[in-house]
Amino acid sequence: MDSFTPSTSRHHSDASSPPEDSRAHQPPGRVSFLKNLDYSVVQQCMHCGLCLATCPTYTATKVERHSPRGRISLMRSIADDRLKVSRTFGEEMYFCLGCLACVTACPAGVNYAELFEHARAEVEASGVLANPSRNLIRYFAIRWLFMDHSRLQLLGAGLRLYQQLGFQTLVRWSGVLRLFPKRLQELESITPDIQPDFSDDLIAPVLPARGVRRFRVAMLTGCAQDLIFSNINLDTVEVLTRNGCDVITPPSQHCCGSLHAHNGEWDLAAKLARKQIDQFPPENFDAIITNAGGCGSHLKHYSKFLGNDPAYRDRARLWDQKVKDIHEWLVQIGIEPPTREKSNSGESPRVVTYHESCHLAHGQKITSQPRKILQMIPGLKIVDLPESSWCCGSAGVYNIVQPEMAGQLLDRKLSHIRSTGADTVATGNPGCLLQLVNGARQQGWSLRVVHPVTLLAEAYRR
Ligand code: SF4
Ligand code: SF4
Question: How far does the centroid of ligand 1 lie from the alpha carbon of residue 93, in Å?
């Protein structure tokens, strides 16, 4: 049985709980994720409001229920049986970005990440948002496409052909898209460019360290990352081998399950976690490397999903310890500083600013390491970005399901980047990279959007 299978009854008690007869009814037999959550997590918020100013949705709307405090209050009401899971509650949980800025701000240490995942799962288990088109899209994307990477690669190959043969340019140039609904036009405009080669074509399954071998690491190539940023995967592997790591990159990898966990599909998240552990036995590696901030935040918590599975419980704990974000790992092991080419020593430095992925900064507390790496690269002038850890609006699939709020956040982010005078912005998460690339393109701005590890790999190559 999976560790997370929720119970059908409360397992906590609380003096403030309302009397039994005032409690809303649950459909018989339906499991409740929020009622099953450890009550010390549910009741931790002390309503101080210190998180409000850091919450992008509250800042934009000034509506209490769009704030962390308001959302936690709703979640607690459901856990206490004072509120039914309703459509409004469901929509509120999907209006939340899951950016976890409130976690960083909270002096009481409220575990909003845990609350948020349980609340989304509660919404899905209740079916309050279900409708035929939503069900179909969710089935296709979450249950089918992202459960088997070969399907995603097939879709990517088709999209690549569409782009390489010039059909995408033709469609955009002809204006035919104006005949379609506005939503479809918006989605087409954010279709990512598919890489000419996927990671399996670029990276050998086993690559030895250059020079003295210090570590043996596994490299996770990701799902969307593999299609859209396989070049960053190649850069990552190059940087790792350059710094004494044997790198094992098995072909045909799986999605990490973060999409599933954040969208209330815990069964599927657990299934994918098992596949990852089978493919990358944690006992065989010094570290398991990810270069995607959003994935890393999920990958470090597999024991939450497999904690009650005797076959995987111990390995999941070891896995959680071995997963490292690439910036975290490089700073931990100490890297060879790149040297500046003598012929370029007179050139003026490139101005680079750094945008923090929410799940790298707030989810994994990795803030100094990417900056340290950037500071090591010769020929760059690093300038601070105002509100660097404020969400850019990408937030998984938030820019697809909540385009209005995502657009506001993107505009805010781009205006801050402009204010720095930088011609390059570095960020360590594929969702942020894609969001900023699309935003700059829509503004006709030739801003370079790049992963820090790419700048490091380029410096080594020079
Ligand atoms: S996760 Fe982000 S959007 Fe959601 S409540 Fe916290 S700060 Fe606000
Ligand atoms: S989540 Fe934390 S910061 Fe926000 S109101 Fe509750 S205790 Fe205060």
Answer: 10
Residue nearest to atom 8 of ligand 2 (CA): 48
Residue 445 tokens, joined: 């701005």
- Report whether residue 69 contacts ligand 2, using a CB cutoff of 6 Å: yes
State pLDDT tens for residues 344-379: 666 778 999 999 999 999 999 999 999 999 999 999
Atom of ligand 2 nearest to the CA of 69: 5
Tell me the pTM: 0.89
> How far is CA 207 from each of CA 22, 216, 221, 237, 287, rounded to the nearest angstrom?
63, 10, 14, 8, 15
Q: Which ligand is nearest to the CA of 55?
A: 1
Pairwise CA distance, residues 419 & 414, whole Å: 9
Q: Which helix (H) or strand (E) holds 276?
A: helix 266-279
Parallel/antiparallel/unpaired status of strands 424-426 and 350-354? parallel
In terms of Cα–Cα distance, which of 457, 283, 311 is closest to 377? 457
CB distance 398 to ligand 1 below 6 Å: no
Domain boundaries, the chain: 20-126, 137-335, 342-461
20-126 belongs to CATH 3.90.950.20: no
Q: What is the pLDDT of residues 127-140, one digit of tens each?
A: 999 999 999 999 99
Distance 101 CA to ligand 1 centre (A): 6
CATH number listed for the domain at residues 342-461: 3.40.50
